[in-house]
Design a protein that fits this description.
16 helices; seven-stranded mixed β-sheet; alpha/beta; single chain
Length: 506
């Protein structure tokens, strides 16, 4: 928080209004926030300095509805902004995202100082709604029931020169009993392959070397197009784009994960040996109650096929502990599946009751202390496995793409950080020559921890890349932001850490 004496510099850049966006939830929300930034900057706003903490002319909350305490978190943050808004005439607050889509009028009733409420289907309306609220001096609530335009047609503010999200679909056709996302994001709608590839090619032309294909259920891509092999074809087409070094995707669903996708991953050199495959539970009984259309045997069969085709693949997952009706035997089936699958890492969650989902009304809600005990046992097992799997990397020589902001202790340790092809985090000794985010170094792994690898010896080689050139150019110019959309494409965004995995993972 800035003092009153320096507030003017925090909220104004050359007399232009500033904005701050707070993002909660999945990668889809992170990418939507990039679009909200692009829309606001196209409308003339400038991003507030880091650490503004509400000290901006417009504060936008891009919300998530997956967690049970999402409502409390939002209203607590809105409450802290109320006195700031009272002290600054003209300040505006907007709430969007999944919680806004769900709660609608409730938000303004609980927080009457909110100016704009918009949903997941009409993020492109934010600047118009802000202006309308200003002119009419009353809250504007506009929730579209279906997608007005595919979000990738909107301008997007991307900050990184080396990595970008690329949406291939929105919405989800699954009916998992614990998940409210399909009700808020709608049915799956797929982009045309040509539009996706055109965006990727334009991003690469600006310096991008890594893209992540994004969808709520990414490998169901094609269901809206009538082509069951559309996703594997898209992966192979990405392999034909010159200059595109790394391709990732999140999050798939075991039901739709087919052999042609495994073959495309194995046979396309720039598709990385990494897979995020949500398990949720290892118990067939619980999977049935979750309305997940696969069983333990099917899941482990996919893992076996992937490892046969891609021996060094790092496989991660999502697991929910304490789903209604889960017995100790059900939990032990999850533990068994984790031991068999040997995940590189797992995002583990204690079941969170969400009003509006079938699971919230189910009998057999598990006591909190039982859920906590199971959760701790699962985390301990996965930590042990993650460490053992990481130790297998010691002695390997890996190409690491240098990242920006990945190593919190890099300054103190005189190291740099980046991602291996399988997405493992690697901290390495800073070489004598300059290394920029987006450049690639070759290192030998000397030590493994559960969540990262160390390369303590000298860097074997440094490969300067077009992505590094683009990062250097962006840093030297210090632009206000790069607006992206179709057909205008500019420097892409980094892959920020989200609070939880993509919505399709839940």
């Amino acid at each position: 928080m800035t003092s009153s004496s320096d507030r003017s510099t925090a909220v104004s850049v050359d007399g232009t209004k500033t904005y701050e966006i707070r993002t909660y939830g999945c990668q889809m929300n992170v990418h939507d926030s990039e679009r909200l930034s692009g829309l606001l900057e196209e409308a003339g706003y400038v991003r507030a300095p880091k650490g503004a903490d509400g000290d901006a002319d417009v504060v936008v909350f891009n919300t998530c509805a997956v967690r049970e305490n999402a409502d409390n978190k939002l209203y607590g943050n809105l409450g802290r902004l109320a006195p700031m808004k009272t002290a600054r005439p003209g300040m505006q607050i907007a709430v969007g995202g999944c919680l806004a889509q769900k709660d609608r009028d409730t938000i303004v009733k609980k927080a009457p100082w909110v100016d704009v409420v918009f949903g997941t289907h009409n993020i492109g309306k934010l600047p118009v709604l802000l202006e309308r609220a200003r002119v009419q001096e009353e809250a504007q609530i506009e929730i579209a029931e279906s997608l007005e335009a595919f979000p990738s047609t909107l301008p997007t503010r991307r900050e990184s020169a080396y990595a970008a999200w690329v949406s291939i679909s929105v919405g989800c056709n699954n009916t998992c009993t614990f998940c409210i996302v399909p009700a808020l994001r709608g049915k799956e709608e797929d982009r045309r392959p040509g539009d996706i590839l055109a965006e990727i090619e334009a991003l690469v032309a600006e310096g991008v070397s890594e893209i992540t294909l994004l969808g709520q259920n990414v490998n169901a891509y094609g269901s809206d197009l009538g082509d069951r092999e559309a996703f594997s074809k898209l992966l192979r087409a990405c392999g034909q784009i010159e200059g595109l070094e790394r391709v990732r995707f999140t999050s798939p669903h075991p039901r739709d994960f087919t052999d042609d996708v495994i073959a495309a991953m194995a046979e396309t050199p720039n598709v990385m040996p990494q897979l995020h495959m949500p398990l949720q539970s290892g118990s067939d009984t619980i999977l049935r109650a979750m309305r997940r259309s696969y069983r333990q045997e099917r899941f482990l069969g996919i893992i076996e096929k992937v490892r046969a085709a891609i021996p060094h693949a790092a496989i991660s997952t999502d697991i929910i502990v304490g789903f209604p009706g889960e017995t100790e035997e059900d939990f032990q089936q999850t533990m068994h599946t984790v031991r068999e699958a040997r995940f590189a890492n797992a995002f583990t969650f204690q079941y969170s009751k969400r009003p509006g989902t079938p699971a919230a009304e189910m009998e057999g809600q598990i006591p909190k202390e039982v859920v906590q005990d199971r959760y701790m046992r699962l985390v301990a097992l996965q930590e042990e496995i993650s460490w053992e799997e990481n130790k297998k990397q010691v002695g390997r020589t890996l190409e690491v793409m240098v990242a920006e902001g990945e190593g919190r202790k890099d300054g103190a340790t005189d190291r740099l950080s980046g991602r291996a092809p399988d997405n493992r985090l690697v901290h390495f000794t800073k070489p004598d020559e300059e290394v920029r985010p987006g450049d690639v170094v070759t290192v030998e792994i000397t030590y493994a921890a559960p969540h990262h690898l160390l390369a303590e010896g000298p860097v074997a080689s440094v490969r300067r890349t077009r992505a590094g050139d683009a990062w250097e150019k962006r840093t030297a110019e210090k632009p206000k932001g790069v607006l992206l959309g179709l057909p205008k494409i500019g420097v892409p965004a980094p892959l920020p850490t989200a609070d939880v995995p993509a919505c399709g993972a839940h």
